[in-house]
Design a protein that fits this description.
By secondary structure, the chain is of the alpha+beta class. The chain folds into three domains: 65 residues, Helix Hairpins (Orthogonal Bundle); 127 residues, HSP40/DNAj peptide-binding domain (Sandwich); 88 residues, Urease metallochaperone UreE, N-terminal domain (HSP40/DNAj peptide-binding domain, Sandwich). 23% of the residues lie in helices and 31% in strands. The protein has seven helices and 15 strands. Strands 10-11-15-14 form a four-stranded mixed sheet. A three-stranded mixed sheet has the order 1-9-8. β10 and β11 form a beta hairpin. α2 runs antiparallel to α3. The chain starts with a helix and ends with a helix.
Length: 302
């Protein structure tokens, strides 16, 4: 429990300011005038807060006790989510508007995750426990908060609440399948003044019917007959942006590749390449005339 937060005053506030804040909140949440759910608990909380710092003597005692407590700041948990895009978007890069959870400190428990708090006896309010060899870990009894109490009903003990928030993210074309983008400090809020965690968005793209990808290079296949390969014929292939005619080089063998420079995925500095895998098929049968021609070619050393 932080009585200053509950009463909405500063640590430097005067006795009169604290009293005014208390009277205003007590009047607002008094069970005789407020029948809303949680009003009675809020009234008790306000009364307990004023009991801690309502007079200069009590305030000094509370401040002195809290000054001796050094709670360990805890970084908030990282969260993750998935996002699917098309193959073309992954190769070109794209901006996407997405809904993500936005975490705020619970205004009922002020981030502690519990109500009716008392100083944790296990760690004496420090939020940390010492193990052997000087190792320090978060207190398991209070989860590092330094206080214990009943689980907060408003946030189910998480210390934070969440709402949906729309953001625009830039997905660079350099990402591979299932790489992640990090949104800094968009995870769960920290405890005891610790920083928020991060949100990791795992990017997956839909497989393409024609193309595959390895880094910035895009691959496709072309199927030709053995005669076309020997005659170095032109073949039309599809790339990311357009169709291109390429010539089958002399001596091309099954499984060879032909590189089309800078026709692959886009990148920060330059594009990758488009790589064509050549598949050469043999005829299942030939005519007698074709067989004689092939014999003639063989005799000539072709």
């Amino acid at each position: 429990m932080d009585p200053y937060k509950i009463l909405g005053v500063e640590k430097t506030s005067s006795e009169a300011s604290i009293k005014r804040a208390y009277r205003k909140l007590a009047k607002k949440y008094h069970p005789d005038v407020n029948s809303e759910d949680g009003a009675e608990n809020k009234f008790k909380e306000v009364s307990e807060a004023y009991e801690l710092i309502g007079t200069p003597k009590k305030k000094k005692k509370y401040d002195s006790g809290m000054a001796a407590i050094k709670r360990v700041p805890q970084r908030g948990q990282d969260h993750s989510m998935s996002l699917h895009i098309t193959f073309e978007e992954s190769a070109r890069g794209v901006k996407k508007k997405i809904d993500i959870p936005k975490y705020d400190e619970c205004d009922r428990c002020y981030g502690s995750g519990s109500e009716n708090e008392v100083i944790c006896k296990s760690c004496s309010g420090s939020g940390a426990m010492k193990l052997g060899a000087g190792m320090i870990i978060s207190c398991m009894s209070c989860r590092g908060s330094g206080v214990r109490g009943n689980r907060c009903m408003a946030c189910a003990g998480r210390g934070c609440t969440s709402v949906r928030s729309e953001v625009t993210i830039s997905i660079p074309p350099s990402l591979n399948q299932y790489d992640s983008i990090r949104l800094k400090n968009r995870g769960a809020i920290g405890r005891n003044g610790g920083p928020a965690g991060h949100l990791y968005i795992k990017i997956g793209y839909t497989p393409h019917a024609v193309f595959t990808r390895n880094g910035k290079d895009i691959y496709s296949d072309v199927y030709i007959g053995c005669i076309s390969a020997m005659l170095e014929e032109d073949v039309e292939v599809s790339t990311l942006d357009e169709k291109i005619t390429i010539k089958i080089p002399r001596g091309t063998q099954p499984g060879d590749t032909i590189k089309i420079s800078e026709k692959g995925a886009y990148g920060d500095d330059k594009r990758g390449d488009h790589v064509v895998r050549v598949h050469i098929s043999m005829p299942n049968s030939i005519s007698d005339e074709q067989k004689e021609l092939l014999k003639e070619f063989k005799e000539k050393g072709v």
